[in-house]
Amino acid sequence: MNAGGETVLVVGGGGREHALCWKLAQSPEVGTVLCAPGNAGTGTEPGVENVPVQDDDLPGLVALARDRKVDLVVIGPERPLVMGLTDELEKAGIAVFGPSKAAAELEGSKAYSKGLMKRAGVPTAAFETFTNAHAAADWISGRSEQALVVKADGLAAGKGVIVCDTRDEAMDAVRRVLADREFGEAGARAVVEEKLVGEEASVLAIVDGATIVPLPAAQDHKAAHDGDRGPNTGGMGAYSPARLVHERRMQQVVEQVLIPTVHRMQRDGRPFRGILYAGLMFTRRGPMVLEFNARFGDPEVQPLLMRMSSDLYPLLKAAAAGKLEDAAPPTWDDRAAVCVVMASEGYPGDYETGKTIRGLPEAADLPDTEVFHAGTKFGTPDADGREQVVTAGGRVLGVTALGEDVTDAKRRAYEAVRRIRWEGAWCRTDIADKGR
């Protein structure tokens, strides 16, 4: 970090943003990292300053970037991207890493995303789009018994996907999405698609509208409980590298998914600049896209940044300027990294907040281990005047460790998990078992 270096604003307050702040603060080109609104982890991260502006306050964020003479804004969550924060910052002459509102529709609308894949020839599941529950139910009832997936069209915090093994389950799912509006306005439309069978992995790439820099593959764990059982969550853990995506498969993903998507968006007048995240199912027919996201994955970014041995900042700055081809490619630690998410009791359903977290310093003492905060805030100081960290969300911490291989990284991550405690804390116990 350079005392006279550039100022970066990271927008968001979750585990992804803590990891980004941690990595950007290490850059010799960066002097100050601001995080809006941040959390208790970013608030204690060396070189990082929390600023109390919410990530959906677009005018406030533009004013903050202008007032603090920010050199680059890095947008973490999907919501401000879909709301058009990139467009507002660019109007104010402020450099920003993140797609425009039009390009972020790739994540903001599953119907748009599936249509784009169809036009671009990107392999994905067969699908239909509906706005009416009765029409969707009629279509489902006219099909042979087949496993289907029902998706709310809009943003639903990673929870608007219902996997259905029977026709009755699918008809119930479209009722929940389109009639009952279980996911609010995100369910104004629904995509119903065939259920793909295979193993999942994520490939993220830094894109500047034309040039694509793929990052190593990671594997997320969406289901709440061990053995991939239970409801979908925002992600209960991740690891990298993913043995599933060997060199030949990565080449397939680049050629069949990333390149045609980026080129199609250019032709459609929606050039994509930011992180293109492909959620993939590796099937007997090859890699097929489950979904696209328009930002770093959380918790995939935690193990990815732990493994990145080069400077992240020049890459993001070059991509924002449309000059990614001039940037040095990233380099990577050969070791593996595993992130285990510790969550509040009740998540992904209702949960309580304000539980005091203990053991954070003891976990931080372990070598090659970082505890990235997601749902935390500062509580009332203790009797000795020391600041207390309390829970403030469902996913609370992303405990991340490097190891010689995936097995070693898992062991180290869970060793740190065992040092941390609060009332109702829980986690999956099988993160990264697929990678061993």
Characterization of the model:
- This protein is of the alpha+beta class.
- Helix 1 packs parallel to helix 11 (301-307), helix 7 packs across helix 10 (247-267) and helix 8 packs antiparallel against helix 9 (167-179).
- The protein has helices at residues 15-24, 40-44, 58-67, 78-83, 85-91, 101-108, 110-120, 133-141, 167-179, 247-267, 301-307, 313-320, 360-364, 406-417; strands spanning 6-12, 30-37, 48-50, 72-75, 96-97, 127-130, 148-152, 161-164, 190-194, 199-208, 212-214, 219-220, 223-225, 229-232, 237-240, 273-283, 286-293, 336-343, 369-373, 376-378, 389-391, 395-403.
- The mean pLDDT is 95.
- Strands 3-2-1-4-5 form a 5-stranded parallel sheet, sandwiched between helices. It has a 5-stranded antiparallel sheet with strand order 12-15-18-22-19.
- The chain contains 14 helices and 22 strands.
- It has 4 domains: 6-101, 3-Layer(aba) Sandwich (Rossmann fold), CATH 3.40.50; 132-188, Dna Ligase, domain 1; 198-326, ATP-grasp fold, B domain (D-amino Acid Aminotransferase, Chain A, domain 1), CATH 3.30.470.20; 336-435, Glycinamide Ribonucleotide Synthetase, Chain A, domain 4 (Alpha-Beta Complex), CATH 3.90.600.
- GO terms for molecular function: ATP binding; metal ion binding; phosphoribosylamine-glycine ligase activity.
- It comes from Alienimonas californiensis.
- Belongs to the GARS family.
